Amino acid sequence: MSDLELKALVFDVFGTVVDWRTSIANEVSNQLKNKGFDLNWLAFSEAWRGKYQPSMEGVRSGKRGYVRLDVLHLENLMEVLEEFKVSGLSTAELDYLNRAWHRLKPWPDSVSGLERLKKKFIIGTMSNGNVALMVNMAKHSGLPWDVILGAEPAQAYKPDPKTYLTGVDWLGLQTDEVLMCAAHNNDLVAARDQGLKTAFIARPTEYGKDQSVDIKAEHEFDFITTDMNDLADQLAC
Amino acid sequence: MSDLELKALVFDVFGTVVDWRTSIANEVSNQLKNKGFDLNWLAFSEAWRGKYQPSMEGVRSGKRGYVRLDVLHLENLMEVLEEFKVSGLSTAELDYLNRAWHRLKPWPDSVSGLERLKKKFIIGTMSNGNVALMVNMAKHSGLPWDVILGAEPAQAYKPDPKTYLTGVDWLGLQTDEVLMCAAHNNDLVAARDQGLKTAFIARPTEYGKDQSVDIKAEHEFDFITTDMNDLADQLAC
Lengths: 237, 237
Prior knowledge:
The structure is a homodimer of 237-residue chains. Chain A has 11 helices and 6 strands. Chain A has 237 residues and is an alpha/beta fold. Chain A folds into 2 domains: 8-19 and 104-234, HAD superfamily/HAD-like (Rossmann fold, 3-Layer(aba) Sandwich); 20-103, DNA polymerase, domain 1. Chain A has a 6-stranded parallel beta sheet with strand order 3-2-1-4-5-6, with helices on both faces. In chain A, helix 10 links the parallel strand 4 and strand 5 (197-201). In chain A, helix 1 (20-33) packs across helix 2 (41-50). The first copy, chain A, is globular, with a radius of gyration of 18 Å. The relative contact order of chain A is 0.17. The A-B interface holds A 70, 122, 124, 130-133, 135-136, 138-139, 145-148, 152-153, 170-173 and B 70, 122, 124, 130-133, 135-136, 138-139, 145-148, 152-153, 170-173.
């Protein structure tokens, strides 16, 4: 496609911009090793993340009102701690551990690629993470967002159309002036269904070397890229 | 006060960060001179701005639901054009003229001061301007916001407490961890009433050299400053 009509790029964050798997494993091991625990830290990280999609279903289905992801993350953390037989953490320790999601590390190409893209386009988040989580992560890891959009502004979790459409509306743009960038096929299909343009950013080790899903683009997207700098190249940034 | 507990600084924008009066006068004259009009451009700018506070009253009072400031600005523009006997503009020309508010120029100290403050604190907007207006202005004028907060996220216009409190809530902070920065006494008093910390930034020529209001801080605020760099000095940035 021509990129002439694009005005804004919005990004999935967990997995697409930052490496949650090793970041969470490192954060959890740093905190729990000191307390005498010896776990499979990557397994802990994957188990915590494994509860992410199911935990949003209550909000998506309307069974419960919108609650921010920090709340769901904490509920999920309590379950994972029990499964891994970890107990005895104070409220402050639990809060700090839960905020590990506010301190996720970018993939090596993310900051340099976003800096390039920012010169030509509005760049924003389109994440299920809440605003504080996104802002704190950006400050921690140098992510140069122009605007924080996504679940909390829309009070709805992707792939609910409202999430994408509220972001587009707040930017004062048409859907085809906004490029949704993600490492996950289903996120892009949902955005495409609402009229957004789409860019696949391959993150074939998001779930480790044996990853079985989202290895490659499985649908027709406007851009298929290998990382954030490849996207910047393709958009002539 | 000690600044140790501050986590985020939020800013009024029109008048505090940007000089709407001369920016709008320049934009309007650039566009209307070409069409043969010869007006008092500063008077036009002041007349347009003069309709700003009254136009928000319908939303504040509940007479109409929230509509974004771009909509109010356009309604107000139509009235001012009629008052100044300007007619014959196309829809595209009216839209471009209305978006002059998206292209306001910063006061000379704003960008350098904000860059300093951003290194130590989260910095965000707390404006009645809508998100697209704020984002486009930031891109146009190099304002390095971490987050866009204010009227549109809250669906309420300052000084409605909801505007300040939604911003604080989305940042995941306590009210006394957030510093409201503004050149307008009433904005700061409203924020202070909700528990936010306050900083007065003097803009004694916002309305020109004969300005009669908001020349100085008229209440007890936590910081009284002469400009954005003075604020950065006082916060040891």
